[in-house]
Amino acid sequence: MELKKNPKADLENRRGLYLEIGLVVTLVAALVAFNVKTYDKEEKVQFERQASEEQEEIIIQTQQEELPPPPPPETPEVTTEFEVVEDDAEIKTELVVNAEVTDDTKNIEITPVKIEDEEEEEDVQIFTVVENDPEFPGGMEALYKYLRENIKYPQLARDNNITGKVYVTFVVERDGSIANPRVLKDIGGGCGAEAIRVVKSMPKWTPGKQRGKSVRVQFNLPVSFNLQ
């Protein structure tokens, strides 16, 4: 009697199925193994990068020890001693000057320094404008009268019919006397010389004053020459 296998129990019929299952399981195992290795590698690389980055960020600070400041220089202690004396005690102050006298020092002459005061400067200075002008005795009317009575018309000017004004300037000194007369403007014919002659013969004036003191004043005077 020939034995026959049950078709359900026959493994040959399921060989293809088992082969596919085995391939699938192998493929899954390979994928899982590949994923596990890759994950481990990536995790290791990431960890190394993080460690390296953290190491770069580390800043080592060193704190220098501060040296104590040097002590201040010692200042010498100054002590002042006072000696108490009686009211009637005589205090002697001695000034000692050590100087060696030689032949050169014997011949040294000490010349006093002359300081000019304000009064000496005013004696030399000639003012043109002062608080009180110098004045002819009797005023300006007396001056013009004096000129009319004392002027002698030069013959040359009379013959050439020369007329006009001669301007004369002079200094009225502190005592009222007339000094340094000269012609500023002449008309010729001897009129300028005649005007100088009359000015020199004038009496003393009342001197000009500045701050209550008599000073030297420059005065300009016109002298008229007219034919009648």
Summarize the structure.
This protein is an alpha+beta fold. It has helices spanning 15-57, 103-106, 118-124, 140-150, 155-159, 191-200, and strands at residues 126-127, 164-172, 178-185, 208-210, 213-225.
Looking at the overall shape, the CATH architecture of the domain at 126-225 is 2-Layer Sandwich
**Regarding CATH, which class of the domain at 126-225?**
Alpha Beta
Structural class: alpha+beta
Instruction: Compute the number of helices.
Output: 6
Order of helices and strands: HHHEHHEEHEE
What level of helicity do the residues show? 25-40%
Low-confidence stretches: 38-55, 93-99
Name the CATH homologous superfamily of the domain at 126-225: TonB
Overall spatial form: rod-shaped
Instruction: Determine the strand fraction and express it as a percent band.
Output: 15-25%
Q: Which SSEs are present, and which pair or pack?
A:
Layout lengths: L14 H43 L45 H4 L11 H7 L1 E2 L12 H11 L4 H5 L4 E9 L5 E8 L5 H10 L7 E3 L2 E13 L3
Parallel strand pairs: 1-5
Antiparallel strand pairs: 2-3, 2-5, 4-5
